[in-house]
Amino acid sequence: MLTDKPSQTILQGIFIDMMKLTANVLFAMVAIALVPKCAQAQKNKGKRKHEIYFSWGYNTEWYTHSNVYVDQPVLGNNYSFRDIKGHDHKGWDDGLMTKAFTIPQYNYRLGFIFNKEKGLGFEINFDHTKFIFADQNARIKGTFVNKPVDSTVAFNAQNGFFYYLNNGANFLLFNIVKRWHVYESKNENLKINFLGKAGIGPVIPHVENSFFGQKNDPHFQLGGWNVGVEGALRATFFKYVYIEYANKLDYARYSGLRIYKGTARQAFGTYEMILSFGLTFPVGKRVS
């Protein structure tokens, strides 16, 4: 049997050319993939590995309806106010510059980005929120002076009722932070980032209340725990100064709140909007 050697040679040549072309395409793809990383590595060379930031701002919030449970064994009371409405007290919308900057509903953030490449960090997150339960008709159900009760009371100060976490419902969270880069100008004088945050921590309320004319001694206390998630859009100017707008969801459970001859407990959800101004600084060793 005869072999067509010229045809075999041509096929071998085509196969070799295809292999060379495939190798060149693969090389080009790898090079294209590596160029941005190399450029980014070159861009980051000499920069510090970590980052710290601090911000101060003000907030407004809305609360879910909730129940306030009152336990006063000495008085024979164990009742609850059902499905009550709470509201905030902004403070910053009424003469912000004429009062101490810690009186309105403020918040601060202190964060540390420990991995700038992956955008991972840790943050101390505090919100001085205010919760006010007053000036409404409230259903009371349970036991009052050792007798069953299920009725409605005019819950207002003139009638001997108020319930304030007005010097702070005070959410403290220890957050894990993830940062995504959205935009950066060529000269790096404008950066826009999105930050996602989630954490857990204690609540430190200032408790002030009166039930049936019996007032407690107003005080701060460690009063339970809360969990929260937050999304924030941050614009950084000239590398160090930023403004941040955030939306936050929080769930807080209060217990052992000291009242007249007893304790109270409560749980509610919060939707919060926050506007902050801050500073950010690079720290740590430089990228080699």
Quote the CATH topology of the largest domain.
Answer: Lipocalin
Shape: elongated
Helicity range of the residues? Answer: 10-25%
Low-confidence region ranges = 33-41
Question: What percent strand?
Answer: over 45%
Terminal residue distance: 68 Å
The average pLDDT value, as a whole number, equals 88
Q: Can you characterise this structure?
A:
This protein is mainly beta and 288 residues long. The chain folds into two domains: 1-44; 49-286, Lipocalin (Beta Barrel). Helices cover 14% and strands 59% of the residues. It is built from one helix and 17 strands. It has one helix at 5-44; strands at 48-63, 66-72, 77-84, 106-115, 120-127, 131-133, 136-144, 147-155, 162-165, 171-184, 190-202, 206-211, 214-215, 219-220, 224-237, 241-259, 262-286. The strands form two sheets. An eight-stranded antiparallel barrel has the order 1-4-5-10-11-15-16-17. Strands 6, 9, 12, 13 and 14 form a five-stranded antiparallel β-sheet that branches. Strand 10 and strand 11 form a beta hairpin. The chain is elongated, with a radius of gyration of 30 Å. The N and C termini lie far apart (68 Å). Residues 33-41 have low confidence and may be disordered.
